[in-house]
Amino acid sequence: MQVDFSKIKFDEKGLIPAIIQDAATNAVLMLAYMNGESLAKTVETGYTWFWSRSRQELWNKGASSGHVQKVVSIDYDCDGDSLLVKVEQKGAACHTGNYSCFSYPLWNSGAGRNLPVPEPDGIHGILAELYRVIQDKRVHGGEKSYTRYLFMSGQDKILKKVGEEAAETIIASKNNNGKEVLYEMSDLWYHCLVLLAYHNINPAELLNELGGRRSKENNSKY
User: Fold this and answer.
1) Short-list 7, 25, 171, 46, CA closest to 100
2) Residue 134 sits in the same domain as residue 195
3) pLDDT, tens digit, for every residue of 92-137?
4) What are phi and psi of 211, to 5 degrees?
């Protein structure tokens, strides 16, 4: 495959920053660097290749972990000195186990201060992975995919399921059945994530909102 790289401006070290974005969710996954060879191999193979500045060698993302990135598109900015690579991410993009490398909140306008950092293997990682699966099924799910069925049915169907699962969770709690509460609330959380995905809201935004509320002094909501 012949691709013209003449408009790409590599820096004095022969590198260009590449922002990697999930093609389905638009979540920013990571930032890495490419040189001419890794960019060519990315185009040739259809999977991301980068240049490691620390090891001074080419590396194929996910070659050892299996968390590969299938390239959907590559764009360059108006100056030609940075790339935007949209991919289909398999597994986690970050070596910590997080779906995205950008999983460490520093500040937002609601909190006005540093926010707590979620653990990679904690609730953030679980929700991020489930959300990734939901967004993947939304686009690539087969005829038997329940997730795709919900999106194809539309917003009213999704809202109805959220209401139904909330009601079933309430009933389980009134019956003082702990196992049923866990089961029904798991269904509720799943359908809530589907609703977030419908609005293209990442669960990280929800956690940041909660963290921002917790960090406010004398917050009457808690």
Assistant:
1) 25
2) yes
3) 788 766 778 887 777 766 655 555 555 545 566 778 778 888 888 8
4) -65, -40
Q: Which are the contacts of 29, defined by CB distance < 8 A and separation ≥ 6?
A: 20, 21, 22, 69, 87, 89, 93, 94, 99, 100, 101, 102
Query: Could you give the angle at which helices 146-153 and 155-174 cross, rounded to 10 degrees?
Result: 120
User: What CA–CA distance (Å, rounded) separates 106 from 108?
Assistant: 7
Q: What is the pLDDT of residue 161?
A: 97
Say which CATH number the domain at 44 has: 3.10.20.810
**The pairing of beta strand 16-22 with beta strand 83-89:** parallel
Output the pLDDT for position 216. Answer: 54
Domain that holds residue 195: 120-217
Q: Which two tokens stand for residue 178?
A: 């702990």
Q: What is the pLDDT of residue 7?
A: 93
Which amino acid appears at position 104 of this protein? Answer: Y
Looking at the DSSP bridge assignments, the partners of residue 17 are 33
Measured N-to-C along each axis, helices 203-215 and 123-140 cross at an angle, to the nearest 10 degrees, of 150
Q: Could you tell me the CATH number of the domain that includes residue 134?
A: 1.10.287.1080
Percent of the chain topping pLDDT 70: 84
Domain count, the chain: 2
| One domain, residues 37 and 83 | yes
41 within 8 A of 58, measured Cβ to Cβ:
yes
Model's pTM, two decimal places? 0.56
